[in-house]
Amino acid sequence: MSVGDVPGFKLSGLLFDAGTVNSPVLLQVGTPNVHKSDPNDPSLLSDVFFRIGGATPGKATVSLVVNSDNVILDDIWAWRADHGNGVGWTDNTADTGVIVNGDNVTAYGLFVEHYQKYEVVWNGNGGTEVFFQNEMPYDPPSQAAWTEAPGVDGWAAFKVANKVTSFKGYGMGSYSFFNQGVTIYAANAFEVPATLPASSLNDLLTIFLNKAASGGILNVINGTGGSSTAANPDTPVTVVSYP
What we know:
Layout: E1 2-3, E2 10-17, E3 23-29, E4 43-52, E5 60-66, E6 71-80, E7 96-100, E8 106-113, E9 120-122, E10 127-135, E11 147-149, E12 152-153, E13 158-160, E14 167-176, E15 185-186, E16 190-191, E17 201-208, E18 216-217, E19 228-229, E20 237-242
Parallel strand pairs: 1-3, 2-4, 3-5, 4-6, 5-7, 6-8, 7-9, 8-10, 9-13, 10-14, 13-16, 14-17, 15-18
Antiparallel strand pairs: 11-12, 17-20, 18-19
């Protein structure tokens, strides 16, 4: 589904189920690089959900792409299934849940789970995220299969692009449970430009969910904040403010 370059639209109460033929994007809002909008008439996505596998087999590279400026996201759930029908590392493939390219986009309640690369990529300036919930993928078959870059284990759950100069985040959590019987690590839960203004991100946490698992998240954000692993299961590891 694609939404044109129009201000003030409202989408609410929709569920997108990916099909067996891979979709590049399930929902695209606005045309890339056009940035049309009206700050006095913002657009709204409310109670919009995405499912990659689980009910039926499905594949989609990205679930939601927001290209328009001044969009409000209210209760967005993007889920690559960890149980149900058509579930497996090479079965219900999905790179990223949400990509925000527009400026001045605000998200309230963003739930993005189990995608295979960055779960959220935020490329726009002036963005605000209030409450983010994430579980990293349960099922990477090896560290080599889930590695962002040479020397960087895993993929961050939330990536703010290096070009971004202004972004604010409040109450953001990422959790790990790797259940394939191999040790898997993510270097960071959150990756953001260190040049963001002071206290741009507030109240971040990671948790190692299951004592029977191994691996975990080595840092909360940008190499800081401590690790959540088998050494401290079910214990929040927090960063109150960054940078």
